[in-house]
Amino acid sequence: MKKLVINAAHIEKRVAVLEDDVLIDVEIIRPSNKIQVGDIFYGFIQKIDRKMDAAFVDLGNQNKGFIHLKDIPAGYEKTQGAKIPVQIVREGSSTKLPLLSAVLEFPGDLLIYLHGKEYISISKRIQDKEPLKIIMESLLEENEAIVIRSSAETATKEQLELALNQAREKYQTLIKEAETRKKPGLLLSAASGVFLSTKQFIQRYMPTEIITDDFEFAKIVEANFTDKEVSLKKSADLFADLGIKQQMDRLSRPVVHLSNGSSLFIEKTEAMWVVDVNSSRFKGTSAKEKTVEAVNIKAVPEIFRQIRLRNMSGMILVDFIGGMSEEGQGELREAIEKESREEYVTTQVAALSQSGLLQLTRRKKQQSFLEVTTIPCPVCYGTGHVASKDTLAFQLERELSGIMMGDPSSIQVIATEDVLDAFLDLNTFNNAPIDWEVADERVPFYQIARVEN
């Protein structure tokens, strides 16, 4: 049973989907002035980089973006100073500019309309694609492309034509607005708010139960989805009451424990995500090959669940346990391909080696869960490691050597107990006028607070 839970009573909105009380999808909506995926800007090309076959674009208000020249349709100039409408297709980061495209997308309930390309794509969830393809071929014009959603499987030609015309009107209105602009800037914000996220989750998962903590929002959902009944649950923290917060808290941790005793270790690097499958406490009673296959296949659904919840994207490497038979290798590949077909974000299986190394690519649009909810640790600077008590003890010895050359009358040193013990074990500066103060900190630490001559 799928349950949709919407925390709409506070400034930060949260939408979650549970299946048998297990979290399978979540979205956090925060008020922000930051550039978001789907925003459309009137941009000015600042610089063309021929080596990269790309351009840097001024978006206004000191915002900049990056666009591949192949993503600028033939109707636009590709020169410095050219003015083009562009859309954010991937959010920026501390090291990368937002990625842009001049092929503009306008999503709707039945279809996604694109101007600047020519193709027809139909949801892989629709079995009989040919009738829809024939309809759209008769409706599309030059420089138009369409992505037909799964919700359009039973739509009539009239419904599809209406949806297409509404999208065309949005595009034409936006282009007219751009023609009046003299400076770069935002043309259309994609800021959706909690209702659009709720709508997408209802269409995607078809929940049998909807719960929210806000009376007005419950009425809005019921008015737009007349076949759905919304339960109102007053709560100081709805996600905590329903056990969702506890599951979300675990998304920041690297280790994921599976019900059979095996585990996953998930790590984010600058270039990719890495998932390591471990047998851990799993106890197999059969041959080694069968044990390995059981662990690997059991891990597949959880791997894709974690990819979805953590919003992992780009290149994802999964290191399965090696030593499978050819038959087991085939079963694992089938399980992976089955899960990838169920994903709503484009996920491609690039390769699965004989040793069990899997390469996935997943389209990036928004920041990962880690990027949205955390910052790099100011103590370890995001490395996950801090200096040991022995390292700090030797470092303190070197600092004191320099200070003692000045013949001080008093030195005050604040240190954690483990660093103090490690320093005393060095058996040096025993006669130095050091006044020790023990700091109650979990991380090994010391500070020379005062030196008097």
Task: Please provide a written account of the structure.
The protein has 453 residues and is an alpha+beta fold. The protein has four domains: 2-32 and 191-247, 2-Layer Sandwich (Nucleotidyltransferase, domain 5), CATH 3.30.420; 41-188, Nucleic acid-binding proteins (OB fold (Dihydrolipoamide Acetyltransferase, E2P)); 253-373, no CATH class; 389-452, no CATH class. The chain contains eleven helices and 24 strands. It has a six-stranded mixed beta sheet, covered by helices on one side. A five-stranded mixed beta sheet has the order 3-2-1-14-15. The radius of gyration is 28 Å and the shape is globular.
Short description:
The chain has 453 residues and is α+β, with helices and mostly antiparallel strands. It has helices spanning 130-139, 157-179, 193-205, 215-224, 238-241, 244-249, 288-310, 326-341, 369-373, 389-404, 417-425, and strands spanning 2-7, 13-19, 22-29, 40-49, 54-60, 63-68, 83-90, 99-101, 104-107, 111-115, 120-122, 144-148, 185-188, 209-212, 230-232, 255-257, 263-268, 272-278, 314-319, 347-352, 357-362, 410-416, 434-439, 446-452.
Q: Helicity level, as a percent range?
A: 25-40%
Return the structural class. alpha+beta
Number of strands: 24
Q: Give the DSSP E fraction (strand runs of 2 or more residues).
A: 25-35%
Domain count: the total is 4
Low-confidence stretches: none
Q: Write down the CATH topology of the largest domain.
A: OB fold (Dihydrolipoamide Acetyltransferase, E2P)
Rg, Å, rounded: 28 Å
Q: Can you say what the CATH homologous superfamily of the largest domain is?
A: Nucleic acid-binding proteins
**Average residue-wise pLDDT:** 90
